[in-house]
Specification:
242 residues, mainly alpha, Four Helix Bundle (Hemerythrin (Met), subunit A), 8 helices, 2 strands, globular
């Protein structure tokens, strides 16, 4: 069987994602929280490129899928968990150690479930994707570094509690939209250009706002569906009694 040298290319992006995840952990341990946070974001970009490169070069493989999942555990599980621990968890004893551990475990469970239930590019995700959870955690850290809402005021437990909620969302049945199969047109192109302009002006605040809206959207959509289902059930019960 002839070896295709292009097979290495997408896996280099995946390896780069792991490498940046490890660097993020090292930076967090040295209290360089801003660099540690940005490294997670760059790792997310590399993670998004490896699959596209594999499809463009026709080098998709089962090995690449498994390698990508292992990379996600490191870059979007362990790295943000260690960032969370060294930033606030270190001040809260066993609670501060447990929350990052739970984040990694539930993130790994989410990846395992995704691998066994998904055979193609999904139109939506069941549960919050682990890269989104990781980026949200690192954006919280970046915002707090600038404004000091949490750590300087002694409210680090708020970040720990919200991180637990994010961890649970990863293994929930709440559906989140996937933009991989988004249909692009002229209006969406203009919207993206305007959005990039806003991100350039205030990158941290804008990205944090957008990611928070993404998380909240899934919860609100799930609640709306539950309310609608209950309303339909009550309506059917009333019709049966008439």
């Amino acid at each position: 069987m002839k070896f295709n040298p292009l097979f290495i290319l997408p896996n280099l992006f995946t390896a780069g994602s792991i490498f940046l995840g490890i660097l993020s952990i090292i930076c967090a341990s040295k209290s360089n929280f801003e660099l540690a946070s940005w490294l997670i974001l760059v790792s997310m970009i590399l993670d998004g490129l490896d699959g596209r490169v594999a499809r463009l070069t026709n080098t998709s493989s089962r090995f690449g899928v498994e390698f990508d999942s292992l990379a996600d555990v490191v870059a979007f599980g362990v790295a943000p968990a260690m960032l969370l621990y060294f930033y606030v968890g270190i001040n809260y004893g066993r609670l501060g150690m447990s929350v990052p551990a739970i984040f990694v475990i539930l993130g790994a469970v989410r990846l395992a479930r995704f691998n066994i239930t998904t055979t193609s590019e999904p139109q939506f995700f069941i549960g919050l994707p682990i890269p989104s959870a990781a980026v949200l955690v690192m954006l919280w850290v970046l915002i707090d570094l600038d404004y000091g809402f949490i750590q300087n005021q002694g409210y680090g437990y708020i970040m720990l509690i919200t991180s637990i909620i994010i961890s649970i969302l990863m293994v929930s049945n709440i559906r989140y939209p996937s933009f991989k199969k988004m249909r692009w047109n002229f209006k969406s192109f203009i919207a993206v250009i305007l959005l990039l302009g806003i991100v350039f002006i205030n990158p941290k605040e804008t990205l944090c706002f957008l990611m928070s809206c993404y998380v909240v959207y899934g919860i609100l959509r799930w609640m709306a569906i539950l309310i609608k289902m209950k309303f339909i059930t009550k309506t059917n019960e009333k019709e049966k009694t008439l």
